[in-house]
């Protein structure tokens, strides 16, 4: 019962904070172009809690479109040598740095909260499915290694958004998938 109350409290806290998360003021979609490594992943979503131990670092290719949307292609190498891939077209919203897309039956509201285009990007996504919300924070790096200060910034940001400490994962390095 205590665990349930703790999780419920974190979820409620995340809803209150999520509405206040705003994208980086000078966001530039073209700066996001290219290859990124998914270094950190944080969410209280049940599917993640059940699978986080097996998750590894993957790569994301971001291609800005002429309309200002982001074509996002993710790939992660499985232990059997096959690749798990996912593609999404994140449609720009009126506010620069804010995007929406659908995936796995979820409506996703993604914000690029902080980005240094040659080093890292921090995103915050609120996923909504059947009236239920889940917050997902991701830390991307231009390389597989990021400094301790950025890893701590990601951890603190996730905690501030109601994600439990045990649900903040720094993903172990992994081989890369070949281009699709």
Topology record:
Elements: H1 2-18, E1 34-43, H2 46-51, E2 58-64, E3 70-77, E4 83-92, E5 98-103, E6 106-116, E7 120-129, E8 132-141, H3 148-160, E9 168-170
Antiparallel strand pairs: 1-2, 1-8, 1-9, 2-3, 3-4, 4-5, 5-6, 6-7, 7-8
Provide the descriptors you would attach to this structure in a database record.
alpha+beta, 9 strands, disordered N terminus, 8-stranded antiparallel β-barrel, 180 residues, 42% strand
- Gyration radius from CA atoms, angstroms: 16 Å
The shape, in one word, is globular
Q: Structural class of the secondary structure composition?
A: alpha+beta
Task: Please report the number of helical segments.
Answer: 3
Q: What string gives the helices and strands in order?
A: HEHEEEEEEEHE
Biggest sheet: strand arrangement? 1-2-3-4-5-6-7-8
Oligomeric assembly: single chain
Helix content: 10-25%
Task: Describe the protein in words.
With 180 residues, the chain is α+β, with helices and mostly antiparallel strands. Helix content is 20%, strand content 42%. The protein is built from three helices and nine strands. An eight-stranded antiparallel beta barrel has the order 1-2-3-4-5-6-7-8. Strand 2 (58-64) and strand 3 (70-77) form a beta hairpin. The chain is globular, with a radius of gyration of 16 Å. The termini are far apart. 27% of the residues are buried. Mean pLDDT is 90; it is low at 3-18.
